[in-house]
Design goal:
The protein has 476 residues and is of the alpha/beta class. The chain is built from twelve helices and 16 strands.
């Protein structure tokens, strides 16, 4: 008999899964009726951060960022647990962070550290999918390919429920697409909503002087020809409505419409021009792939993109292929963890992430932007060498039982630690939170009831989130 993993417990039977699915559909339709009457769910009305964010910036540390070397060090634990690094006092009295975060440690009074994230998925592809969609993949702890039947990414759901009126794209993925480690990871696309709801994807922003080729008007295409092409697109739109069952045609028409809007909007073209930034500021972010991606992400938020997802590293473990290129390093540090973090990962992360928070704060962007540092899971509370992986010294294996994330901006409490792990940073000893709660928090912060629903192209209803907003981020 087939079985599936539910959010908080052991596998359930297929019959039970169908029963739960039916209840979820009924719940979704009930929420839709409430939304139509202008009523918010209890989860939304009780959430102190409801509607406080105009934008959301997700910074995703792909590979599983170790909580012990960053946000939840355990200096009193035995060396085989605490590891080779020390810890430093942060800007918040009594709050320690890893010693290789000297710049970021000075900014902890601007954000909340959540130390009790927890779920059950133990492999990168499906855990990445879980983080991006707020739902378990039906192949938990695996590395599946993207499928058109996947749940849509948060940015795709946002475009479906509240498309942007301030920018051409509702959602932009920077330094993407995310790879696991060299194949495209699931969960970052429109999925069952179709390609029209895919986020715009920007790759390596350091690969050349032009981030998005083709945005500048071409002299050989005068305005009259541009207008004719646009009129032709309108005619094709009319024809496509008569063939609404052709999903590929609808997807392509949506992509064409977005392309024309980008060409027509100078504000859009300007947002992608990093050369307009002061050299000193570009140096502060770091003249590397991750640092400049941070700078572009700030510019996109400033330009009005509602949801920007920055993949800090485009590969979760690219160092296996390119050990001498820091741009390829991911946080999947099974072996050689301390060398990888000390020499490659932490210096750039500390520089770029601290520059991003500082810059956004100075520009007033944190007043209305929710910034979240996420990762798919943490690392094990035991240093050991794994013979199946490359590397000559010890590291930490995957660990989803507890890990840490960071939140700031849009009214998030400042200088706070939410949740607690045990003495080994292995399990929560306080209320635990999960990716579906983060998803609910994001939509609620944007003023969208997480218990409402969206519909796919065939009008099937799906709950926006199956989690509960994390009230503790905005209180105390």
């Amino acid at each position: 008999m087939l079985s599936f993993i539910t959010q908080d417990g052991p596998p359930t039977t297929r019959r039970e899964w169908l029963r739960i699915g039916s209840l979820a559909s009924l719940t979704a339709m009930s929420s839709a009726v409430s939304a139509a009457k202008g009523k918010l769910s209890t989860a939304a009305t009780n959430f102190p951060g409801f509607g406080k964010a105009k934008n959301v910036l997700i910074v995703f540390a792909s590979g599983g960022q170790s909580q012990l070397e960053t946000w939840d060090p355990k200096p009193k634990a035995p060396v085989e647990i605490r590891g080779a690094f020390g810890s430093v006092q942060s800007a918040v009295p009594g709050t320690l962070v890893g010693e290789h975060l000297p710049l970021t440690s000075k900014l902890t009074d601007k954000f909340t550290i959540v130390r009790s994230m927890s779920h059950l998925d133990l492999d990168h592809g499906s855990a990445f999918y879980l983080t991006m969609t707020g739902r378990y993949h039906d192949r938990i702890s695996s590395n599946p390919d993207p499928r058109p039947t996947d749940y849509p990414a948060m940015g795709s759901v946002l475009k479906r429920t509240r498309p942007s009126t301030r920018f051409v794209h509702t959602s932009v993925n920077v330094n993407g697409p995310a790879q696991v480690p060299f194949l495209i990871g699931p969960g970052q696309f429109g999925g069952l909503l179709g390609q029209e709801y895919d986020s715009m994807v920007i790759g390596d922003v350091t690969s050349g002087p032009i981030i998005v080729p083709g945005l500048d008007p071409r002299a050989e295409v005068p305005q009259v020809r541009f207008d004719r092409r646009k009129a032709l697109l309108s005619q094709l739109d009319d024809a496509s409505h008569a063939m609404a069952s052709n999903s590929k045609m609808l997807d392509m028409n949506g992509i064409y419409r977005q392309a024309f809007r980008m060409l027509e909007t100078p504000r859009t073209r300007k947002a992608f021009d990093l050369s307009s930034e002061d050299d000193t500021l570009r140096d502060r972010y770091g003249r590397n792939r991750s640092g400049q991606a941070c700078l572009l992400s700030r510019r996109l938020i400033e330009a009005g993109v509602p949801l920007v997802t920055l993949f800090w590293n485009h590969s979760n473990r690219g160092q296996d292929r390119e050990p001498n290129d820091t741009d390829w390093y991911g946080w999947d540090t099974h072996n050689d963890i301390f060398e990888a973090m000390r020499d490659h990962l932490m210096p750039r992360f500390d520089q770029g992430f601290s520059a991003l928070i500082e810059d956004m704060n100075q520009r007033g962007l944190l007043d209305e932007t929710l910034v979240l540092l996420l990762t798919e899971f943490g690392r094990a509370p035991l240093v050991a060498r794994e013979p199946r992986f490359a590397g000559t010294t010890a590291g930490r294996k995957h660990w989803a039982a507890v890990y840490s994330i960071v939140a700031c901006g849009a009214g998030v409490s400042q200088g706070k630690v939410l949740g607690e792990s045990n003495a080994e940073a292995g399990y929560p000893v306080s209320e635990k939170y999960a990716p579906w709660d983060v998803t609910a928090t994001i939509f609620a912060a944007l003023g969208i009831d997480p218990e409402a629903h969206y519909t796919d192209p065939t009008d099937r209803p799906f709950p926006i989130s199956i989690g509960r907003p994390i009230n503790g981020l905005f209180t105390g």
